[in-house]
Amino acid sequence: MTDNISVTGLVATPIKHTVTAEGLEISSFRLASTNRRYDRTAKAWVDGETNWFSITAFRQLAVNVQASLDKGHRVVVSGRLRVREWRNGEQLGRDVEIVADAIGPDLAWGRAQYTRTPRQLVAVDPAAEATAGPTAPDAAAQSADAADAAGFPDESQAALATPF
What we know:
Blueprint: E1 3-11, E2 16-19, E3 25-39, E4 44-58, H1 59-68, E5 74-88, E6 91-105, H2 126-132, H3 136-151
Parallel strand pairs: 4-6
Antiparallel strand pairs: 1-3, 1-5, 2-3, 3-4, 5-6
């Protein structure tokens, strides 16, 4: 059973981006999420406790996180919750991790400009395609081309930094 969770907070550490020997891209950072409430007697907003989460993103999401986010950005993270106990000698602890399915800017705190990441096309041998007929990747590429023609202008293909 997976526990899905959505959390808003601040990117509290620099984004750590790595690529494994197999070519898997991984980005990770710590997220600080603090609840706030309005104290009517003090007539002021009061910070509650801060929850800390380790955020991990894989593949294209990891690439986009590394290119788009920096320490201090306010974000919304949605993903699968994993809580792990750890022991280091006499010390005991608990790590709360979110394996991210989606990460984006928290638009309650600023504006962002979305730029779609272009898909990588797989090179196809024309001789093999002629004998085998259309393949699933070919159909997917045609579908992507149709979507581009239908609603995404050419300039959306250029990667731009997200200004938030």
